[in-house]
Amino acid sequence: MAKILIIDSSHAHLAGLVDQLLASGQEVRLAHEPSQAEKLLQEEENDLVIFNLEAEGFDRLRFLEKALLLAPFTPVICLSGQADLEEAVDAVKLGALDYKLLSTSSETLAELISVAIKKPHALEGPFLTANPSLKNLLFRLKDVARSDATILITGESGTGKEVLARFIHQESPRNKGPFIAINCAALPEHLLESELFGYEKGAFSGAFTRKMGKFELANGGTLLLDEITEMPLALQAKLLRVLQEGEVDRLGGAYPVKVDVRVIATTNRDIEAEVAQGRFRADLYFRLNVIPVKLPPLRERPEDIKLLALHFCREFANRYERPVKGFAEGVLERLAQYHWPGNVRELKNVIERAVLLAQGPWITLKDLFPEEFRPKAREGLPLKPLKEVEKEMILKALKAANGNRTKAAEILGISVRTLRNKLQLYRQAGLI
């Protein structure tokens, strides 16, 4: 049995559909006024929303946008009195599941509803975004995913580069094959080489058996080379050969092994600057950069701050079985004003902590940030700039961790690399 919310200013238009849904055992709620609809969207779990755009007082797509913010993971079917192609396109761009005419038969609508409540909504996919530019990027990447072209994803730490790589893999014909990821910054050169290319028994001391490398393990699928700019130059030359020839040489091997792998690489560095300074091979850069993708930081996509905060809230409330429904009034707006130096990773960690600390059904600012990290506004005195607050948070976290950068990064919900880069910038600016 599904819970279906119907938003309409009267019973007349959809009476036949309501009767059919009730007869099929569905639970139907009706909202006749905007305030009533907003309450049911925010406080109730709905499996589907049917919105009559002709309903009086609801302002068509403006209310749709508000509804999708209040319940971003609930699919919405819009109904209109007249066919308006431009409005239909705008509705789908905003996040509506479908756009149909009110004259559509109850049987056809019921069939569409049946499919909608059984099928996961698009927002439940691996890469969540409400940002128009990123939505357009995802749409174009679906076409790119069908090819075997290498892709280079750039962006700050924590922006979701690996999540985007998984999205590309899932949209590709290789989605039945493996998705293998390796962090090029996590291993020293000799271990990274054996992890990538594998080795034969007896290739070196301790090689007691043959080991397949990540390229062979990813055969028929996708290999993600995370933080590619951290790869030593000697290994870059070997990687280039693999990409050009489609075969790997195991350490100690007598002959090359053919592989069929789609490669996606990521970096949080300015890779063109790395090439200019001789730290990254130009020929490898051009080989990887067939399809360049740049992910903007979270602070440049404020729509996603609210969307992801709601998503993580629901995810962790379910995981930890906490009675948390959402955020107190004004909290999402304050989250959107924060700088988020650790991007999505930091936001996720903050929301996870808040879900665990929340004393009631609604997350407050006190649950999100320790008191000393929240600047207090006094009459006549401005709030501190975000960059100053960020520096204070980092220094206090380091103090609390007794100078241990790994522990400080965990407290802040950012990577050690991001923390190290921030400290370097502060030293260069003479701030510490």
Automatic annotation (TrEMBL):
InterPro entries: AAA+_ATPase, AAA_lid_NorR, CheY-like_superfamily, Homeodomain-like_sf, HTH_Fis, P-loop_NTPase, Sig_transdc_resp-reg_receiver, Sigma_54_int
GO molecular function: ATP binding; sequence-specific DNA binding
Residues covered by the Response regulatory domain: 3-117
Single GO BP term: regulation of DNA-templated transcription
Residue spans crossing the bilayer: none
Domain of life: Bacteria
Record domain Sigma-54 factor interaction: where: 127-356
Keywords from the UniProt entry: Activator, ATP-binding, DNA-binding, Nucleotide-binding, Transcription, Transcription regulation
SUPFAM superfamilies: CheY-like, Homeodomain-like, P-loop containing nucleoside triphosphate hydrolases
SMART domains found in the cross-reference section: AAA (SM00382), REC (SM00448)
Gene3D superfamilies recorded: 1.10.8.60, 3.40.50.2300, Homeodomain-like (1.10.10.60), P-loop containing nucleotide triphosphate hydrolases (3.40.50.300)
PANTHER family reported for this sequence: TRANSCRIPTIONAL REGULATORY PROTEIN, TRANSCRIPTIONAL REGULATORY PROTEIN FLGR
Name the record gives this protein: Sigma-54-dependent Fis family transcriptional regulator
